């Protein structure tokens, strides 16, 4: 099969589902560091995050941050230290989008956390 960045392969058993129209994208997801959605190299990274500066922020030489995914597009990065979640958005986020992201952050399954999750924006 041909993709925007070259040829690709899928299993024959997956073809019907692969060709089906996609369902609606989640309004917001905080993908963890190294999530398979963005575990990519080379041209695949350019396809997912076209801006080179943004790629450098997501795929660092150190521990990768998590990715902020909104409506199927990576629009920022995030990190967590205990109950503090820091989010760096690459575009303007409306107040309703912020509420959706903050709801996602406060729903993170952190069983060892002793207190609430606090979201910080930059």
Walk me through this protein's architecture.
The chain has one domain. The chain is built from four helices and seven strands. The model has no long low-confidence stretch (mean pLDDT 90). β1 and β2 form a beta hairpin. The longest helix is centred in the last third of the chain and has 12 residues. It is of the alpha+beta class.
Short synopsis of the structure:
25% of the residues lie in helices and 25% in strands. It is of the alpha+beta class and 122 residues long.
Span of the ends, CA to CA: 40 Å
Into which percentage range does the β-strand content fall?
25-35%
- Please trace the helix and strand order, writing H or E for each element: EEHEHHEEEHE
Q: Domains counted in the coordinates: how many?
A: 1
The main sheet comes to: 5 strands, mixed
Task: Estimate the helix proportion, in percent.
Answer: 10-25%
Mean pLDDT: 90
Low-confidence sequence ranges: none
* Gross geometry: globular
């Amino acid at each position: 099969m041909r993709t925007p960045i070259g040829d690709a392969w899928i299993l024959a058993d997956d073809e019907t589902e692969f060709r089906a129209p996609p369902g609606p994208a989640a309004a917001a997801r905080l993908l963890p560091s190294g999530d398979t959605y963005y575990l990519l190299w080379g041209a695949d990274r350019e396809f997912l995050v076209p801006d080179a500066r943004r790629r450098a922020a997501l795929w660092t030489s150190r521990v990768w941050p998590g990715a902020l995914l909104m409506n199927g597009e990576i629009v920022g990065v995030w990190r967590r230290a205990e109950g503090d979640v820091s989010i760096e958005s690459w575009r303007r986020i409306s107040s309703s989008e912020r509420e959706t992201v903050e709801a996602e952050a406060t729903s993170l399954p952190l069983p060892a956390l002793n207190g609430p999750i606090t979201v910080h924006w930059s």
